[in-house]
Design goal:
Chain lengths: 259, 379
């Protein structure tokens, strides 16, 4: 069984600051990590490798330094790493990104593609599902459990108010939640092996995509404005009985025309 | 000259930090209080290849180097001095001498399970009447057919009890003095080999420190490590390596105490401001960090010297002397900066100060390190 895990290297913080002038993320001084949802996908793949001998390839699109995230994945136990990297891919929105990654996936063989639900620096949750659409694959997002069956996977999709259990025929694509598992650490031997292994780098020329369909040119999204959420004023605390509390909440919501 | 870690070692530092935060730190207080050996942490370390870091993969190791190994001891000791010494004694004092002196057969039989972490190692040199004066060994080994018969005892043996494999020094020829000492590989469960009294210690209380007792223990000739009469030299070379491990443990304790203190002084308020805002606090912290950084460079230099097959006896002694005395000084200051709270068991610096003291004593006291360093200067 071949599994490809799509990963993104992201800044290690949930409080990324935004440059007030350019509206872009300030990345200086913030360590980079494997996006947590993607790391859960990697752990799920490695668990399948442990139990059924799957071959795990990690794939990332990003700048040259994203190689380090791929080496970390190798050190955790992935078999192969591919970095999709070219200056021409810069400025890609989710559409151009998913088109590029889908093109890379077309060059590989796989039964299962695992992505994270969303990246902590963009939070769109669009790239995984878009890849599946580009490739015409069945997909399940928000996966918190995964079990292998002959020719299929059974997954648990989790929502705020419930869950679904779905069987998907292979090949398919899943987007994983970080709550899915506790990723293993790298192993010491794995780290040394990871730096002896090759990380393949695929550029625009390797993927055969039209320049108009990638990077900034291939991105229909235009960012009008980025801003940090302003701090809210302190809330008001009422110490009342539950029934009275419910009444209070309903009144306040009505006052603000929310209900 | 390059003072930067390469990418491999930087990624390892990330692994060690994550591992220590999640697997080592949460248990440190409990294993100290209950004097419990951290077997579950040893199992986790084995899973991630930490019990055989500097040994080749063909012998079950991680295929790493000594720098990678002592960085692990340092990182783990930041949170738990006990776990740090378990790793150091296992790697430097038991697996390393087998790797460096063992026959191919001994390496297959003993180094492989040690490096994989399936078995734990210990080292027995010290006796009631042979501490710093290691030449005064009274344990004897007499050849009888295809085996040596061992009689005697060892004290203060780190990892004794939980350990499965022991390197033991014994006199094969008393008339030759230090040239009459030989090294043997013993296994737990050999008839006549038993574990005696467990010490109750000031610090590193989760580590098991016991007496070893030998009553007519038949040790097969195949278990002679190195040459007959070569035990003293083997023990001294082993301790050269071990000292880098203990220096790394001391370094970790010092940095762990600094990290805990930095967090504390930013929170603790007196006279209407945090104690971090007082210049005394700032100057103390600066001194603590400067010394610890100096210790780190000495410790890393010793490890890199060993990796590059350069002489490292003096480098290891210098690193151990400076790092252990720095650990004692820094942890004492950390307690002082915590004030009354620092003297309570509620804060980790109290444990770190107790743990630091032993680093000035075991695997060669500070006085022995001074002897080694000055002997090289005056020869």
């Amino acid at each position: 069984m071949n599994i490809v895990v799509c990963m993104k290297q992201v800044p290690d913080t949930t409080e990324v600051r935004i440059d007030p002038v350019t509206g872009t993320l300030i990345r200086e001084g913030i360590p980079s990590i494997i996006n947590p949802d993607d790391k859960a996908g990697l752990e799920a793949a490695l668990a399948l490798k442990d139990s059924s001998g799957a071959h795990v390839t990690v794939l990332s699109m990003g700048p040259p330094q994203a190689e380090l995230a791929l080496r970390e994945a190798l050190a955790m136990g992935a078999d192969e790493a591919i970095l999709v990297s070219d200056r021409a891919f810069g400025g890609a929105d989710t559409w151009a990104t998913s088109s590029t990654i889908a093109a890379a996936l077309r060059k590989l063989e796989w039964d299962l593609v695992l992505c994270g639900r969303q990246a902590i620096d963009g939070d769109t949750a669009q790239v995984g599902p878009q890849i599946a659409e580009h490739l015409g694959l069945p997909q399940a997002s928000y996966v918190s459990e995964l079990a292998l069956e002959p020719g299929a996977v059974v997954v648990k999709r989790v929502f705020e108010d419930g869950y679904q259990r779905i069987r998907l025929r292979l090949p398919c694509l899943l987007t994983c939640l970080k709550e899915m598992n506790k990723p293993r650490y790298m192993s010491v031997g794995g780290v040394f092996d990871a730096f002896r292994a090759e990380v393949k780098v695929w550029s625009l020329g390797d993927l055969g995509l039209a320049p108009a369909s990638i990077g900034l040119k291939g991105s229909p999204t235009r960012v009008k404005q980025s801003f940090s959420k302003g701090a809210k004023s302190a809330g008001k605390v009422y110490t009342v009985e539950p029934r009275e509390g419910a009444q209070l909440i309903v009144e306040r919501l009505k006052e603000r025309f929310i209900i | 000259m390059d003072f930067q870690l390469n990418q491999e070692h930087r990624l390892l530092a990330q692994l060690y930090r994550d591992f220590t935060e999640a697997e080592v730190a949460p248990r440190a207080k409990e294993i100290d209080e209950t004097e419990r050996f951290p077997e579950e942490t040893v199992r986790s370390m084995a899973r991630y290849g930490m019990m055989g870091i500097p040994f080749p993969k063909e012998y079950g190791g991680a295929g790493g180097d000594n720098l990678a190994y002592i960085m692990a001891v340092e990182a783990i000791s930041k949170a738990c001095g006990t776990t740090g010494v378990v790793l150091s004694a296992h790697t430097s004092l038991c697996a390393a001498p087998i790797y460096e002196n063992g026959t191919e057969e001994q390496k297959r039989k003993y180094l492989v399970p040690l490096a994989r972490g399936e078995k734990l190692g210990a080292f027995g040199l010290t006796e009631p009447n042979a501490g710093t004066d290691a030449a005064g060994q009274q344990t004897t080994a007499v050849l009888d057919g295809d085996a040596y018969i061992l009689n005697g005892s060892k004290i203060f043996i780190t990892n004794a009890g939980p350990a499965d494999i022991y390197i033991v020094m014994a006199m094969t020829d008393k008339s030759k003095g230090t040239k009459g000492i030989s090294a043997f590989i013993l296994e737990k469960g050999m008839p006549g080999f038993s574990i005696g009294k467990k010490e109750e210690k000031m610090g590193i209380r989760g580590s098991s420190t016991c007496e070893l007792i030998f009553e007519n223990v038949r040790v097969p000739k195949d278990n002679l490590l190195g040459k007959e009469g070569g035990g003293f030299g083997l023990a001294m070379r082993t301790l050269d390596g071990g000292r880098i491990g203990i220096a790394a443990q001391a370094l970790g304790l010092a940095q762990g105490a600094i990290d805990a203190t930095v967090a504390y002084v930013k929170e603790r308020k007196q006279f209407g401001k945090t104690i971090a805002q007082f210049q005394n606090t700032q100057f103390q912290l600066a001194d603590m960090q400067a010394k610890t950084d100096a210790a780190r460079l000495l410790v890393y230099r010793a490890a890199v010297s060993k990796d590059r097959k350069l002489p490292y006896t003096v480098e290891a002694a210098t690193a151990k002397l400076f790092a252990s005395e720095t650990a004692m000084e820094v942890t004492t200051k950390a307690v002082q900066l915590h004030g009354g709270y620092g003297y309570t068991r509620e804060y980790a610096v109290e444990r770190m100060m107790r743990d630091a003291k032993i680093t000035e004593i075991y695997e060669g006291t500070s006085e022995v390190q001074r002897m080694v360093i000055s002997a090289a200067m005056l020869k």
